[in-house]
Specification:
By secondary structure, the protein is mainly alpha-helical. It has a domain at about 60-104. The protein contains two helices and no strands. The longest helix is centred in the C-terminal third of the chain and has 18 residues, at about 60-80.
Amino acid sequence: MEVTTGTPEKRSRAKVKSAAPAQETKPTITVKKPRAKRVKVAAATVTTAPLATPSPTQQPSVDEIRGMIATAAYYLAAERHFSPGRELDDWLEAERRVKASMYG
């Protein structure tokens, strides 16, 4: 038994042709899908999300109201590009809008 040191030799990647007779085949044509175009979007205008109004027979829970206020406050902050220092004003304005939409 012979022991070799070092790396094994690389195998040839050449394909071995079979002895079977070659049948004439039609060439296959592949069609590439067109690439999707990239669209550059300018600074998007953020509008206040429409507030969900509850049905007259069912009042939203306190957690649902708090969620609506938080969502409205987020959109108000987004309108002013999230500049710091006006968070309370955003929350109070959102609270006013949610209550106005609920109670008319």
